[in-house]
Model the fold of this input.
Amino acid sequence: MSKPKFYQSKLTLIKGNVLEMAFPRAKNMTMTERMGSEEAKCTECGKNEWMLLPKECVSVREGGKQYIECLNCGSQTHL
Done:
């Protein structure tokens, strides 16, 4: 049996428009269209700091969308 492997991820601030990075083909997309408001507040806790989940995670692979997770409460939604 092989030993388990663990990987550490590092959060880095995305500079510029995250929507342009996440959806390169969609021009003129707004945060209000994707998240309900320009502030992009979490519906669970009201904070607005998010982690863009990697393409390898289950949510993204199975959902087929760009998913995000609230850094305050852990709530997940798609961008």
Notes: Strands lie at 50-52, 67-70, 76-78.
